């Protein structure tokens, strides 16, 4: 983990949704990262005011990018200080101050062979996507599943890539979706909030002792983690991450 602020070059950027953007950074001195880590981003205004926010890394080391590059996916918050600039204003060729990668507990390592259940609420899929990409790049035999809860189909990140990962027999990823406000045409169930019963139907059972990586808003994470423990899952295997990180959201 690096605690030093470094200047990163913005080498690419693309929209994931109308309000979310993936930004690729080249960071001098970076030598890879662990799936699930995050970096801190610092912006400095002309008057010296600084804002720091934490953003999960979406990319995976060994999955196509040079070791000194990584990608962040940032969701724009209407009242945010940092995210509107990163999504709407930042240009390829500009620079950002970054610190990290940070984190050693909410991470998946390629040597881990046990079954894994990823659970994402909205933009909480970002660090879990890093894990899914790392799992695929390593051709890992560890059983991997993702439950992705979305308000609407249009809010989903990485849809085409998730479909491709699920179809690859080399290191398959099972992906299940739930929708809370609007479902795709022909979806077998009406949109509804995730419940304990639905969760139990869509995640690996306690008998196989999966490790859970759960990321989303605080209410989502608290509800889902409670349901998992009530269903008999080992609390020590339920790892959680909430929006915001050490620098707050926005």
From TrEMBL:
Keyword Iron appears in the UniProt entry: yes
CDD domains tied to this protein: FNR_iron_sulfur_binding_3
Needed cofactors: FAD
Keywords: 2Fe-2S, Iron, Iron-sulfur, Metal-binding
Keyword Iron-sulfur: yes
InterPro entries: Cbr1-like_FAD-bd_dom, FAD-bd_FR_type, FNR_nucleotide-bd, MRET, OxRdtase_FAD/NAD-bd, Riboflavin_synthase-like_b-brl
Ranges where the FAD-binding FR-type domain occurs: 3-108
One Pfam short name: NAD_binding_1
PANTHER family reported in the protein's UniProt record: NADH OXIDOREDUCTASE HCR, PROTEIN RFBI
Name of the protein in its database record: Ferredoxin reductase
Lineage: Bacteria, Bacillati, Actinomycetota, Actinomycetes, Micrococcales
């Amino acid at each position: 983990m690096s605690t030093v602020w470094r200047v990163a070059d913005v080498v690419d950027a693309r929209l994931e949704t109308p309000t979310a953007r993936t930004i690729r950074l080249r960071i001098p001195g970076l030598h890879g990262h662990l799936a699930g880590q995050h970096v801190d981003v610092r912006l400095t205004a002309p008057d010296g005011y600084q804002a720091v926010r934490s953003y999960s890394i979406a990319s995976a080391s060994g999955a196509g990018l040079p070791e000194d590059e990584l990608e962040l996916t940032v969701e724009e918050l209407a009242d945010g200080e940092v995210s509107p600039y990163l999504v709407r204003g930042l240009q390829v060729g500009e620079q950002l101050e970054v610190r990290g990668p940070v984190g050693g507990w909410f991470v998946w390592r390629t040597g881990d062979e046990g079954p894994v259940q990823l659970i994402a609420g909205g933009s909480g899929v970002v660090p879990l996507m890093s894990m899914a990409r790392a799992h695929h790049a390593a051709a890992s035999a560890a059983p991997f599943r993702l439950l992705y809860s979305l308000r609407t189909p249009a809010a989903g990140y990485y849809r085409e890539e998730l479909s491709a990962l699920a179809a690859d027999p080399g290191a398959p990823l099972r992906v299940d979706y739930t929708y809370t406000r609007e479902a795709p045409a022909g979806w077998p169930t009406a949109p509804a909030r995730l419940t304990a019963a639905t969760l139990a139907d869509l995640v690996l059972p306690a008998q196989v002792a999966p490790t859970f990586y759960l990321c989303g808003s605080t209410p989502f994470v608290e509800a889902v983690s409670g349901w998992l423990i009530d269903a008999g899952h080992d609390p020590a295997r339920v790892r959680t991450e909430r929006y915001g990180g050490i620098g707050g959201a926005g």
